[in-house]
Amino acid sequence: MTTLKDFSLIIVKNESLLDSIKDYFYENLLHNFEDDRLLDCKIENIDDTLKQVKTKYAVVIQEGIFFFDHIDANFLKTVMSDINDYSVIGHILDRKERYYQIHQQQFILNVDNWKKINCPNFNHTQSDELVVIKRSTGNFHDDYTPLWIEQTKDITKQNKLKFGGYVISEMLRHNFKIRPFNENERHVKKFVYYDIEEQIKHILTYEQLNSCSYYYPIATAQQTKKFTEQHKNYISVANGIESLKRISKTYKDIETITFYDISITALIFTELLIKNFSADYKKFVQQFDAIGGQQWTMLDGSDQDYEKLNNYDVSEVLPILEHIRNNNVRINYCIGDITRPSIIENVKEDTLINLSNVFNYNFNLVRKTEYIDWCNRVANSSHKFEVLR
Ligand SMILES: C[S@@+](CC[C@H](N)C(=O)[O-])C[C@H]1O[C@@H](n2cnc3c(N)ncnc32)[C@H](O)[C@@H]1O
Questions:
Q1: Which of 40, 66, 241, 351 is 20 to 30 A distant from 313 in Cα terms?
Q2: What is 331-380 written as a DSSP string?
Q3: Residue 128 included in any domain
Q4: Are 128 and 179 in a shared domain?
Q5: Shared-domain flag, residues 217 and 185
């Protein structure tokens, strides 16, 4: 009988994923795979990685896929009901004149069967002996997502095969069956894809996004506080322009910045600001809102509110952005509560912390009384801290 112990998990890198979304992906991925059943690789190395797998099955996923629940305890448990009948289960795409493809976002492979037929190459692009495939007339969506596929006795050729095309053909040729993920399996996960706009659009409409996922394109209250100490390490909530304004006197000394925020929208906005912003802040915000930010903005959405952005002075952050970009300042974008004691305990050097008003913030579960404990940790640390609220 197949059990969860018969599976290994392989995580394929997604080189174009925003750092903030990558962090969110790893924090969201819930599983119970022990280290010896957990591998990662670049897509070019998928064959070699699969050859190292010691279990009968491998679940391959790519960074940027979000499961509503545990990938093993929930997702795999349901897939397991007919796992013995199939050697590949995945998103099987009919690429018409370019044959068929297994989408790399996720598939399940019977590794034993794949090894039995000499490990056909997933990245193979050319073959003169491909099985002609018979497919359902219906689709899950569009015209390239068949409900089922089967082999025929005919042969075709192709010199521009997409990922997995050759594996599909070889598996079918050896009488191993393949099926696409069914309707239920498709609806308990979401992939954000590759293009930046697509990633943002998908993640900001993710059904499981937590309800604190707001972002502040403009401060709700006039902030004038600035750090004055020259420390190399800066920790802050991801409050975009305001987080940067606070280091306007000290940024030249900063080598590492770590943003912790309970809002993925705030982290993404801050990442885009740091990587891409150059001029016209109102346009920058409107573009972000157009690709998904709007439902999470703390602006009221009226033209008048957007007009406020024209008078919001962001000139102060331009030299900071230039400095960050030209001096390889290391930036980490982390989903999570900035008030956790481990953040203070793990600091290894003198540090600036922009706490903002998190201890008085409506949308989180921090208890106000914890502020005293937090201050004691800062005071008792062996490193110096400058804290702004
Ligand atoms: C506290 S809000 C305040 C914004 C401020 N009132 C302003 O006018 O700019 C700033 C950021 O802190 C984040 N935040 C709130 N509580 C947090 C917590 N416990 N840990 C990490 N981030 C938090 C919010 O998601 C938001 O992005």
A1: 351
A2: EEEEES-TT-HHHHHT--S-EEEE-TTGGG-TTS---TTHHHHHHHHHHH
A3: yes
A4: yes
A5: no
> Do 180 and 232 share a domain, yes or no?
no
> What is the domain extent for residue 364?
210-388
Measured from CB, residues less than 6 Å from any atom of ligand 1 are 212, 214-216, 219-221, 237-239, 242, 260-263, 266, 337-339, 356-358, 361, 364, 366
Question: Residue 302's pLDDT band (boundaries 50, 70, 90)?
Answer: confident
How many domains does the chain fold into? Answer: 2
Pair (241, 303) in one structural domain: yes
Strand partners, 155: 131
Is residue 202, in this structure, part of any structural domain at all?
no
318 pLDDT above the threshold of 80: yes
pLDDT tens track for 234-266: 999 999 999 999 999 999 999 999 999 999 999
Q: Which residue has the tokens 């497919």?
A: 135
Residue ID of nearest Cα to ligand 1 atom 22 = 261
Residue of 210, 211, 262, 297 with the most ligand 1 atoms within 8 Å of its CB, for mutation? 262
* Distance from residue 219's CA to the centre of ligand 1 (Å): 11
Same-domain status, 162 and 100: yes
Distance 220 CA to ligand 1 centre (A): 11
What DSSP assignment string belongs to 177-195? Answer: -EEE--HHHHTTEEE--SS
